[in-house]
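Subject — a protein and its fold

Tokens — whole-number codes for backbone shape
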Amino acid sequence: MDYNAHHSYGDRLKIRSAHQNRHLSMNFDFFSHETAAQRSADIAHLVIAGWAGRDKVALENHIAELEQAGVPRPEVTPAFYRVGNNLLTQASEIQVSSASSSGEVEAIILNAAEGMWVGLGSDHTDRKLEAISVPLSKQVCPKPIAHCMWNFADVEGHWDELELRSYRYDGVKRSLYQEGRLGVNMHPTELIQLYEQRGNEFCTGTIMFCGTLAAKSEISFSERFEMEIYDPILDRRISHGYDITALTG
């Protein structure tokens, strides 16, 4: 059937608009105080916060190091990158275009109908493309996230104490790749405030990735990536892992 022959231009605009506004429904285990509930959340927008470190001297040194590797300097920090919500996945395996990508662990914030929630994600990024365009490098890879969410109100008071870790695999060898407390990055309430000051809305159905940690070894491809966020005050953790298949060398 010829799509254009059976729909007027106005009809096609309406159909396109409906598709563009379509929400992604994802199932989560929501934990609040002593209760837990499994339910779906509609995700309309995905935002990646980059260059979100609190220490401006260390941040500037990091930017300068990446410039030497060819990564363009951001116009402003933190930077916020809007990417497609369809990139979000809870699958245990992802496919990427080539072996030039890698994961990086981040805390994520979900603004849901029931309030604000904290989760875990990997801003998997194409490193070769990053040297050409950071926004494009964010757009071409899936963004794995865990199934569990914590009530933000339960951790807001000790946010800086939360710990992130990630591990990479070389064959069967597992090695620590990233480790640190969330206090090295900007608090999510500050990130959200800055995001909205720049004319955006952190509306219901938005997920924000809140910044990553420095790598302990060379940034390179691995066939598996594992990550966790640990709460030392409430002694609990969220973890997730995924295998990576490169479709080309």
